[in-house]
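Q: What changes when iron/sulfur cluster is included in the input?
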Amino acid sequence: MLLLMIERGLPIDLVLTADTGMEFPEMYRHWDRVEQYLFQKCGLKLTILRHPKGFEWLMFDEPKTKLSSLENRAMLGVPPYGNGWPGVKVRWCTGQLKTHLLRKEVNRLKGEYHALHYVGIAADEPDRIRQDQYPLVEWGITEQQALQICYAHGFDWSGLYELYGRCSCWCCPFQRIGELRTLRRHHPQLWAHLREMDSRALSQFGHTPLGQFKKDWTVEALERRFAYEEQNGIRIPPERKKKRNWRNR
Ligand code: SF4
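A: The predicted holo structure follows.
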């Protein structure tokens, strides 16, 4: 969206994104490249919003104060701090690390200036449309076409989108098993970090929803499964990439 906005001469005063702190290293390099491009074309820098304490503090350390939450935790036998793994019912991460930060900043800017908020939602994601400006929707550009436009301009995320169907947090429990297999193979250091996080989650929250990485799977059990496949030469064909469902990430 940004590339086309620049090419079509739309006014740009600020470019906002949110960093969960758990982005792939390739994504950080991509942001550096975008920033260079943006500076060259518009004299602007990227504004990257971050939660002051970050993902792991929220997951393991955030103190809980609400009575209902304290009672619930006492019942489950888990400590009164830390949110545990994000789950389908409590996806605390998206709100705390992305949407609240962006919404707060956008509302501040809208209050201070007569600002328009352009959002890079594609034409084939109509269920994500709210009340902002959606140039890609207006121009009828799909997610796939947007990706091709980025590639044509030399922005390729160092191949990240060739490996994964989604490129948000590498530790996301909503990833498919195939993506986790790819993480282990292509990003072994991140995989090692994920194993540590899950082991910490299990010792802090036990086998409760807060300590559950994925239904029926701990990261350690996945490690054993993937290692077994590898040792026995079991080739799992790469999953056909499904359409990314950004709403669930
Ligand atoms: S990518 Fe996953 S872990 Fe990261 S904020 Fe989104 S839902 Fe949460």
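Observations recorded in class: Residues 2-167 form one domain.
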